[in-house]
């Protein structure tokens, strides 16, 4: 506990230094340099100071001035390099993180969509293709977000792979709420209507939806973007049945995170994704097709 508090305090302190160094580094060093240079020039205009410098140093005044200016410039360069090194170190610390808590998203399924939206907005140009892999349960949140992405103009050059529970598996498994099957069929139908109603636009914008029904307990669920960003959570039990993941806590890995922990988490998600896509058939629906196709994954 004490170690955790220390890490949090240290990180807060480092973030304060980082913010200060980013915003004020060059300006502060320049102001300090100019201040001492101007102060020295003003003092040299005072006869007493001029005589004092010449007497104490025993050197020609011109040499003294040159030496001091050299020292000032050297100090400026030294502090500039020092702050640059500090900033590089802090950026490295930011990439690796000091605390695992920074990777947790406590806002549930709705909360991670905010982050997903931000990730999608980061595309420099909408011609950059994005692949989104989703491991879901009943897809209760997917259809509204697809409509939202369309309104935001983000539904372009995207392939969305949607893994979901097979309705028949839900109906024959005592570990699920039986209403899930009804809800899942309703959400799949709603998404299908959206795709059909926007068929031409989806085709022109190169948008594809691939559906993968799976028949196993959903130990892992979440989102993976092709830029390396990952949102992953785990199943929870409520007595004898699995909870709907509305309030799940998600692990959020950013694209530039390359720690051993991040590698293992990505490997775990890929493992469950491949299993979810490995069943006999995949139903593919995209803007280039007017009807469902069934083919092996």
Task: Give a summary of the structure in a few sentences.
The chain is 54% helix and 17% strand. It contains 9 helices and 11 strands.
Number of helices: 9
What's the architecture of the largest domain, going by CATH?
2-Layer Sandwich
Give the helix proportion (percent range).
40-55%
- Shape descriptor: elongated
Could you walk me through the main structural features you see in this protein, from its secondary elements to its overall organization?
By secondary structure, the chain is α+β, with helices and mostly antiparallel strands. The protein folds into two domains: 2-96; 101-295, Endonuclease, Chain A. It is built from nine helices and eleven strands. It has helices at residues 2-44, 47-57, 61-96, 108-121, 142-151, 167-171, 179-197, 199-204, 260-276, and strands at residues 104-105, 130-135, 158-165, 207-214, 220-225, 230-234, 237-238, 241-242, 250-253, 282-286, 293-295. The strands form two sheets. Strands 1-9-6-5-2-3-4-10-11 form a nine-stranded mixed beta sheet, with helices on both faces. A two-stranded antiparallel sheet has the order 7-8. Helix 5 links the parallel strand 2 (130-135) and strand 3. The longest helix is centred in the first third of the chain and has 43 residues, at 2-44. Mean pLDDT is 76; it is low at 282-297.
Topology:
Layout: H1 2-44, H2 47-57, H3 61-96, E1 104-105, H4 108-121, E2 130-135, H5 142-151, E3 158-165, H6 167-171, H7 179-197, H8 199-204, E4 207-214, E5 220-225, E6 230-234, E7 237-238, E8 241-242, E9 250-253, H9 260-276, E10 282-286, E11 293-295
Helix pairs in contact: 1-3, 5-7
